[in-house]
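Q: Here's a chain of 638 amino acids. Please give me its 3D structure as tokens.
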Amino acid sequence: MRLIIAEKPSLARAIAEALPGSMNRQDGAITCGTTTVTWCIGHLLEQAPPDAYDPADKQWRLDRLPIVPKRWKLTPRPQARGQLAVIRKLLKQAKEVVHAGDPDREGQLLVQEVIEHLGYRGPVQRLLISDLNRPAVSRALTVMKDNIAFQPLYRAAEARAQADWLYGINLTRAWTLTGRQAGFDGVLSIGRVQTPVLGLIVRRDNAIRDFVPYPFYPLWVDLQIAKGQLRAWWVPKETQPLDEQGRLIDRAPADALAARLPGATGQLTTLNQQEKRQNAPLPYSLSALQVDAARRFGLSAQAVLDTCQTLYERHRLITYPRSDCRYLPEEHFAGMGAVLSGACQQDATLSGWLAGADFTRRSKAWDDKKVGAHHALSPTGKTPDFNALSKQEGNVLRLIIRNVVAQFYPPLRTFEVKAEFTLLGEAFRASGQQVLDPGWKPLFTTREETPPLPPLTQGEPCQAQDAGVEVRETRPPEPFTDASLIKAMMNISRYVDDPDVRRTLRDTDGLGTEATRAGIIETLVKRGYLVRKQKALRATQLGSALIAALPSAVSTPERTALWEQRLQAIADAQDDPATFQHALLNDLLALLKQSDAGRLRQSLRTAQGEAGAPAKRPGKAKKRYTKNKRAETRRKAR
């Protein structure tokens, strides 16, 4: 018997439907001829608790830290014991085993840890599926690979799971026990990704709270030129009172110049004119989709992920959604016209976009060198019944289809002009843009960002008709939203001060992964560290107090982003898990020495004083979190 172990029931059903022979459903499996397909229900196993290694660690004590297992143990999740027993029985009968986890690091871990935990030692093949439609699954079944090739990916995932355990268990116990000494009797949960994300929001909230606005004074002048009029803006010299962004912060020089300008003559001293071509935005990765869907429809990152999973698993309308890639395989180019024709049939907007596509046009999106374990999100070609989709599902699906259709549109062509005029010895700048060919732009917006300038000639004369001074005020930074926070997690190097670390992080995946970012945000909300206020994500008193009490190394993104870099190196067989864990333990020892009840007590008092109320315990949030996780497990089981 050949046994295929899928990551989830929906994937198992898609595989069974693509196999020859009639399907015979059993308890926890489907048989098709000589092949049996079974499945996991998310993770069937989890890291064993500390007391599984030493009963003395059931009680939380500072003098027992750090807890470091000598030999790692996995234990069955309580709700997964039945399915684990099914797989154990089938493995004993199997002559050939196929690993059919999702095509990413976590998917590799999820199935392989079950195979190894149950003691199977025979050869294993790897089945990679990113599209649940039958033709795509049938093709994947013909090109399976030896699972040995994916051992580095598994080791990286295993190293991540063990490192998260070490980091979370030890630091959570340390600061929770320190919290008790400081008079707080709740659990202070710390995680290697969730805590830096919380730190980003707390620091942004603090910047908003501490922001002191001040006025600045831009000066405009309306100029008459040979072929019309335009408005230009004064560029004050460095000798003027300016802020760091070059804005004038003393009105007197602006008023004095404005009074002298009407009737003054000058000339166009610098003229830059060039035609620019801008290619269509690439197809979506999950994070890029979450950013756009949050901005356009106000959806949370988790809502976008859940919607994509439904479009992928239930409706089979899109390819594998938890992708960090924005490129498509070159072999998909030839058939994409037919795929999009099927995807766009039942929707007037999509059909209109499709009518303008030129399927002989090849964009930069088709690039095998930039496609890794998975490719960008794409429609599968199955015709959607939009009446059967929710409004949210339809909106997200249209975005995904739009970005692929846009690859068959010409570039946006614009004529951009930047001009600098000199009057009374001062510089004034104007800019404009003329759209020569809208190309793909109407699929995204019909707005023109910058109006065009009249025709200009280098050196031509000008005369000031009118001038004025505006009073503007600096604004605080915007609070984080789901969209801006996901974008910040994707581009975490922008929030790193060390230039060497920033340079290193530019090429990494950022904070968290495509599959985990939405869950991290929701975890912080459920644990009482964040709240949603309309679209904004704001830290609670408890969240602010925790970040204030922690060493900056725990709440800033450098460490966890560098973790991701080390884990990727392990996945690429360029680093060793043992070396990674040894470095982590040295970090842990240093961090544990910094837990300070006095500092935590002061940060809790500060948070209470600023809010006028005591910091809330996360008890109810923790109960909601447990209830939601159980409900999620039941949904996956179905």
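Q: Can you summarize the key feature?
A: The longest helix spans residues 151-181.
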